[in-house]
Design a protein that fits this description.
By secondary structure, this protein is of the alpha/beta class. Among the domains are: about 395-525, Alpha-Beta Horseshoe (Leucine-rich repeat, LRR (right-handed beta-alpha superhelix)), CATH 3.80.10; about 535-580, no CATH class. Helix content is about 10%, strand content about 20%. It contains seven helices and 37 strands. Strands 1-2-3-4-6-8-9-11-13-15-17-19 form a twelve-stranded mixed beta sheet. An eight-stranded parallel beta sheet has the order 10-12-14-16-18-20-21-23, with no helix packed on it. Helix 2 links the parallel strand 2 and strand 3 (about 110). Helix 1 (about 15-50) runs antiparallel to helix 2 (about 95-100). The N and C termini lie far apart (about 100 Å). It is a single-pass type I membrane protein.
Length: about 575
Amino acid sequence: MKDMKPLHISHNPFFSLLLLAASFSLQASSSSLTGSFKDTQQLLNVKATLPNSTLLPNWLPNQNPCNFTGVSCKDDTLVSSLDLSYTPLDSDLRSVSSFLLTLDQLESLSLKSTNLTGTVSAFSASRCGALLLDVDLSSNALEGSLTDLSSFTSTSCSSLKSLNLSANSLDFSNTNSTGLQLNSIESLDFSLEFLDLSSNNFSTEIPSFGDCLSLQHLDISSNKFHGEIGNALVACQRLALLDLSSNQFSGPIPSVPTGKLQYLSLSGNDFQGGIPLGIADACLKLLHLDLSYNNLSGSVPSNLGTCSSLEYINLSRNEFSGGLPIETLIKMSNLKKLVLSYNSFIGGLPDSLSKMTNLESLDNNLFTGLIPESVGNCSQLISLDLSFNFLTGTIPARLGSLSNLQDLIMWLNLLHGEIPQELMNIRTLENLILDFNGLTGTIPSGLRHCTNLKWISLSNNRLSGEIPSWIGQLSNLAILKLSNNSFYGRIPPELGDCRSLIWLDLNTNRLNGAIPPALFKQSGKIVVALVTGKTFVYIKADGSKECHGAGNLLEFAGVRLAQLKQNFQQKSLQLHQSVWRYHPTHL
């Protein structure tokens, strides 16, 4: 047997490299385990600060943090994302952040709606990890000053790209009030791409956003910012979304960044004057334009037609005048939703209206004349609201070809004739509201096929005949208003089969019999599918002799509670030579 020779590893390059690689692997594994243990400990420290020890039950010692609720990891070891949204932490931000910000690999942190209290300066007091990009602290009860916002984003969290501090507002009625505030900020310089400060009741003039070349999303809506905007945003040339709605801004519409903007909302302010011609320069990529609820006037500029990418335009609740700018609007080939209501556009509805294939609403203007038959060519139409006008003639039978229509609303006009039988072809129809016209004849029998109907309102017309029993087959019907007509005969007991019916108004007819007892169980209920996401008001008479709208339930999309007094109690609406006063009662 030969003697075995010793293996001289030091002279063998292959084995040297193998040992070196193994050494690095062990070091990396050890480092990873150390980092994982550190992350576990920091998360357990957070849990220890919570008043409710039963929260986060799987956050346990000696466990991989990647298995903890709300945690996502890199390489199954190090915490890269933490999302505890809607978890009732009931804790102080400083206590929580002092541990979370030490997570070295953390990129995203969401503590949305977690009942956090304390001040935002808690974040400024700690240095974020170098990889932290996204922080969401929205919908909490945070307070304090944001005067150090610039240093927060440029020093404490220099890598931060997205910051959401929305819905943390408290009372700002005096200088000692708490809540998120902007005080004495002349310029905000930061490298954020996303900033949401909405719903905080900031009560100041808008600061200059200085060096904001990276900013792509800015939402400061639903606050109390006031004054003119001036050049505060001119440097933000990469903005794709700008939402300044529901504030108290005044003066002319400001210059906005051009080239990148896709979403622009200036609604719910006190902007005055006309739409500037220069706005066309900012609409190369603009998809959404909302200028509603202001004091804008004049005509719609023709060069707005160059905004060919626009899908949504809302100019409602202003003082625009002149004819309907149809030739401008039909150039917008991608337009899906057009809202021009509550202005003073005059004249008739042109036949070329049919080219607006997604037209939604033209209510409460001063349109006169006939409803053009060509509206029946708007094949994609979902909602047609021509209420509050001076329209005459009959309801076009060709509307029955609108196979996607859900809302047909023409109340308070001067329409006459019968309700077309052709409406039976609109199987998608949900809301048929034709009150306060001069319509005659009976309720079309074909409507029995419109089984999606939720709202039928035909009051204050000259309709006659018996109330059809087939209405009881409309299982989705929630509101039936037939008052102030000439209906006769018995109240059909089949109405008791309308299991969704919550509002029945049959007064001032020639009816007999009893209201079906089954309906009493449903009285006062709210049908979720009917009202989800919608605001309703009920019009009550205030003693005026010609309050024609009394007794009507109306939908007002976008009405803000803060504006109700201004818009519906202080202002009277001159219409049809009558004074209307709106007294809202929310259901």
